[in-house]
Amino acid sequence: MPKVQVLDIKGKKVDEIELSDAIFGIEPNKVLLHEMVVNYLANRRQGTQSALTRAEVAGGGRKPWRQKGTGHARQGSIRAPQWRHGGVVFAPKPRDYSFTVNKKEKRLAMKSAFSSKAIDNNIIILDKLSLEDYKTKEIVNMLSAINASKKALLVLPEMDQKVIYSARNIKGVKTAQVNTLNVYDILNYDSLIIVRDAVSKIEEVYA
Hints:
Layout lengths: L2 E5 L5 E6 L2 H4 L5 H15 L58 H17 L3 E4 L9 H10 L6 E5 L4 H7 L5 E5 L5 H6 L2 E5 H11 L1
Parallel strand pairs: 1-3, 3-6, 4-5, 4-6
Antiparallel strand pairs: 1-2
């Protein structure tokens, strides 16, 4: 089992924890990781882009000039794509880009994401994290003390408004709960900071 130091908010080692091999110690499946990232980004697309084809643009019903004898190229409509204000060739229309990934693949992808962070030594375990008030400065000081990267994902065991509100104005920092974690965020952020109570919940959910 991979062992990780447990730090307090001042960056001091207070304990050591063994992470589950079944979640943090597997060989990452790169194909599944890629599929889950594509799935996440595709599901976020609104798919509302729209443009008009030549059949939908108003006007252009009359032939602009006769077929022969003018010296111009033959034209059938002033709303053809080559004309200014004409229609768009293969115009984009509203569509749904989302697709589904089965549960087994999702679970394996999450384990692969956790394991890739453990292999790269980018997991930081915090003993606990609680604030008495809404203080962004305390989160900034904590991140500096534990040597977290500029892009850090902070995983909480449950909703904590004081921590979430204090961290949301820090550039490159995002908070998440165990039930809102996804592969894209885990891979996108350089440091994965997990509060100790959240580790047991992760192992309970994905074991």
